[in-house]
Amino acid sequence: MDGTGFRRSLYVGVDIRGYGAAPEQRQQKWQETLLRCLDRAAASMGLNRARWARQQQGDAELCVLPHDEHEPRVVDGFTRRLEAELRLHNEEVVPWARMRLRMAVHHGVVVNGPNGYPCRDAVVVSRLLDSKPLRGVLEQWPEANLAVMLSDLVYHSVVEAGHTSLRADQFRRLAVREKEFKGYGWLWLPGCADSLDMFSRPIVPRWDAAGVQARPYVVRAEEVSDVVVRGRHRTTAQRGFIGG
C-alpha cells in the first residue's frame, strides 16, 4: 500500500438541491455561490480551504480535510456559518432561485487512488449525502437552507461527547439504506432546528398512489420485508413496484 497516502481524516460532502432541473444560467450562478459560501464560512472559522483536497462536480464537492483541521470547529462553527451564508444569499433572490444544500460529514480512512478515494469511508459519506432521507428533509422543511447528516461515528465522538455547542435534541437519528450501505445518520437543520419539532413530520412521506406513477424496482432478497411490492407475494417477488 506504499504511495497511497493512507491516513484518517474528516470527509465533508455538499450537494445543491434541484441543480439538474435548473436553467444553465442559474446553474452557473449556483456554482459561484456555492464556492463563495464555502470559502467565506471556512475563513470566518479560521479554516484554510486551500489545504483541503477537493473533488468538484459542478453542483457538488467532496472534501478531505487535513488531519490538523479542528474537527469540532468544522462540525459546529463552519456548518453554522455556511447556513448563515446561504441564508444571506437566499434573502436577496426570488423564492424559486434559492440555493439549498445537503451536507454529510464522516471521519475515516483516506486512500489516494488514480481517480478518487478507493476506500469504504469515502463511500459512506457519499451514500449519506445522496440518501433518500436527507433528500426528503428538504422537501419536508422548505424553510431550511441546509440539511446536515453526520455519520454515527462523528455524532457520537464529536457531538455526544460534548466537543461542540450542539445538543442531542437538535438531532434526529435516521436509518439509511443506500445501495450497498446500511447504517444510521444524524440529521441536523442548522438555523431552524431550535424552532421546530424534529419529529413532527415524516422524513420520507408515503406516496399518493393517485399522484405518483409507480416505477420499476428490482427487489433483492434482503429488501423484501422493507418495501411494498404490488401484484405479487412479498416472499417470492423478484420484480415489483415501490409504493405505499
Characterization of this structure:
The chain has 5 helices and 9 strands. The chain has helices spanning 24-44, 71-91, 120-130, 132-140, 152-160, and strands at 7-16, 53-56, 60-64, 101-110, 146-151, 172-178, 181-188, 216-218, 239-241. With 244 residues, the chain is an alpha+beta fold. The radius of gyration is 19 Å and the shape is globular. The strands form 2 sheets. A 7-stranded mixed β-sheet has the order 2-3-1-4-5-7-6. The chain has 2 domains: 7-205, Nucleotide cyclase, GGDEF domain (Alpha-Beta Plaits, 2-Layer Sandwich), CATH 3.30.70.1230; 206-244, no CATH class. Strand 6 (172-178) and strand 7 (181-188) form a beta hairpin. This is DUF3800 domain-containing protein. It comes from Kibdelosporangium banguiense.
**Main β sheet profile:** 7 strands, mixed
Distance between the termini: 47 Å
**What is the share of helical residues?**
25-40%
- Going by CATH, the architecture of the largest domain would be 2-Layer Sandwich
Q: What name goes with the CATH superfamily of the largest domain?
A: Nucleotide cyclase, GGDEF domain
Q: Strand content of the residues, in percent?
A: 15-25%
Structural class: alpha+beta
CATH hierarchy, class of the largest domain: Alpha Beta
Average of pLDDT: 82
Order of helices and strands: EHEEHEHHEHEEEE
Tally the structural domains.
2
The overall strand count is: 9
- Total count of helical runs of at least 4 residues: 5
Q: Which strand order does the major sheet show?
A: 2-3-1-4-5-7-6
- Point out poorly predicted stretches: 205-244
| Cα radius of gyration in angstroms | 19 Å
CATH fold description of the largest domain:
Alpha-Beta Plaits
Gross morphology is globular
Protein name: DUF3800 domain-containing protein
